[in-house]
Specification:
Layout lengths: L1 H14 L4 H7 L4 H11 L14 H8 L4 H9 L22 E3 H8 L6 H18 L5 E3 L13 H5 L4 E5 L4 H10 L5 E6 L6 H8 L6 E6 L14 H8 L7 E5 L6 H5 L8 E4 L6 H5 L8 E4 L4 H9 L7 E4 L11 H15 L5 E6 L3 H13 L5 E6 L7 H18 L6 E5 L6 H10 L5 E5 L7 H12 L3 E6 L2 H5 L6
Parallel strand pairs: 1-2, 2-3, 3-4, 4-5, 5-6, 6-7, 7-8, 8-9, 9-10, 10-11, 11-12, 12-13, 13-14
Helix pairs in contact: 1-3, 2-3, 9-10, 10-11, 14-15, 15-16, 16-17, 17-18, 18-19
Length: 490
């Protein structure tokens, strides 16, 4: 029975592995709970939303594994190490660890010495220790790395098990080549592109993978490739093409469009996640992009026509459709017609949709299609809405748009809807907002808006009234970047 109880606890705690607050509380209940929680916490001890600058105890635990010779060497270099008790640790913490995070290691090693050289020595000893003591390596975040850790003794065995790699293009190409020599089982590869360089080393790392399922590439917001090269990412995209039978998730966010994407994307037929731009895709080429398993899809507000074609050719499994970002001052060609078709394609092809971004004009026809979508898509839980006018709206027009929008939501929303994000070109009068809250019959709503007017006393009083009644769960005013980011939690 004791073993059964511990097994059950382990499965429960595994569900909490991303909730550090709850897991840390579990440590304090009793010995059994503590023994069950420690392996889960130490599987990836760097992933929690805590201030590692203050986690001196974490430094002490790792440093306690160093041999006496290494400790003496480090102290002779002027590195302050804690006084160690000869009593053994309660747990063999590193035996549970399956991950390395370079940034966190850099933070921890800076706690005891301000000198860069000494930090480098301490980091080197920590990595050497990990190569010897970690039973396997599943997760590696090597942003900011200064050590070629794949040359350390024991690295070949350890890196064979690597499943997830996060890095950036600031590191030297030799790191990618070194990893390509050792790692062939990476399933998730996440790269931040912050510096222009020749990308053949990244392509080589992709080529040698046997089961690459998830690839994410994001250009830094300030990243720019000068010149006339239309194929800056050609080698990377062609390497991804070779993985068409395994790639399920592709996030390719570029600030410079590579024409190779147009040739490669239709061949990635097993995609479940697709987040990219569709600039310069012809309608004929878009119709070749058939993703029957697609579940998560994101395109720009400027690519509504392309998005409609992708949605129409999906297999009816889409759960998340996201748009963004949108800038109200921009003029989008054919927006009225494209946004109308987009709404129709969603309710015609996405019966399982749960999270949705919409942008449309404030015409009666658009509101009619919007209401139809709300009635058909009964699984909808989270909705982001932008009304976009091609002229600057007067106060009266903005209030009219807001009233029309709230009426549509009252009359047609699915009962599962629990989160609404309001962006652009409408406002809610106190009377319209009170009518909406008074007639709402679904789940308790969380609302996110960028309008500071709702912080005024009369609005706050109204919102608090319906919070107390259980109609409103949360009502927050945020910047528009947070509202558009559907990963930003209310």
């Amino acid at each position: 029975m004791t073993k059964l109880n511990k097994d059950i606890l382990f499965y429960i705690f595994e569900e909490l592995q991303n909730d550090s607050k709850s897991l840390f509380s579990c440590l304090m209940v009793n010995r059994l709970w503590c023994e069950t929680t420690i392996p889960i916490l130490w599987k990836n001890p760097w992933c929690y939303d805590i201030n590692y600058n203050n986690k001196y105890y974490l430094f002490i635990i790792i440093a306690s594994y160093l041999s006496d010779d290494i400790k003496e060497f480090l102290m002779r270099q002027g590195i302050q190490l804690p006084s160690f008790s000869y009593q053994s640790l309660l747990f063999d913490y590193l035996s549970y660890c399956r991950s390395i995070n370079v940034k966190i290691i850099n933070i921890l090693t800076s706690i005891r010495t301000p000198l860069v050289y000494n930090q480098f020595l301490l980091q080197q000893e920590f990595y050497s220790l990990f190569m010897k003591r970690l039973p396997e390596l599943k997760y590696l975040d090597m942003k900011s790395i200064k050590h070629q850790i794949f040359y350390f003794p024991g690295a070949r065995f350890l890196f064979e098990s690597l499943c997830e790699l996060k890095c950036d293009t600031l590191i030297d190409s030799s790191y990618f080549y070194g990893l390509a020599r050792l790692c062939q089982n990476i399933e998730r590869l996440i790269i931040d592109n912050v510096e222009q360089k020749v990308y053949n080393s990244v392509a080589k790392l992709i080529e040698v993978q046997k089961n690459l399922k998830y690839f994410e590439w994001k250009d830094d917001i300030n990243f720019f490739i000068p010149g006339t090269d239309l194929y800056p990412y050609k080698e990377i995209l062609l390497a991804l093409e070779q993985k068409a039978d395994t790639i399920n998730h592709l996030i390719f966010i570029l600030h410079y469009i590579d024409c190779t994407l147009q040739k490669v994307l239709p061949k990635l037929h097993k995609l479940k996640t697709l987040i990219t731009q569709f600039d310069h895709f012809s309608e004929e080429l878009l119709k070749m992009c058939v993703f029957s398993d697609l579940e998560i899809f994101r395109a720009g507000y400027y690519n509504l026509k392309a998005a409609s074609i992708i949605i129409e050719n999906s297999g009816g499994h889409l759960r998340n459709i996201l748009l963004g970002p949108y800038y109200p001052d921009d003029i989008i060609d054919n927006f009225d017609n494209d946004s109308l078709i987009f709404i129709r394609k969603v309710h015609e092809n996405c019966p399982s949709i749960e999270t949705l971004s919409l942008a449309f004009s404030p015409s009666r026809e658009h509101f009619t299609e919007f209401e139809k979508l709300l009635k058909i898509c009964k699984n909808l839980k989270s909705l982001s809405i932008a009304i976009c006018m091609d002229v600057i709206g007067t106060e009266g027009k903005l209030l009219e748009n807001g009233e029309e929008l709230l009426k549509s939501l009252i009359g047609s929303s699915p009962t599962n809807l629990r989160e609404i994000r309001f962006l652009h070109d409408y406002k809610f009068s106190l009377e319209a907002l009170e009518e909406f809250m008074g007639k709402w019959k679904g789940c308790a709503l969380s609302i996110l808006t960028g309008q500071s007017v709702y912080k005024e006393e009369n609005y706050v009083k109204l919102i608090n009234k319906y919070k107390n009644n259980g109609v409103i769960k949360d009502f927050r005013c945020e910047n528009f970047m947070n509202i558009e980011d559907m990963d930003f939690n209310i």
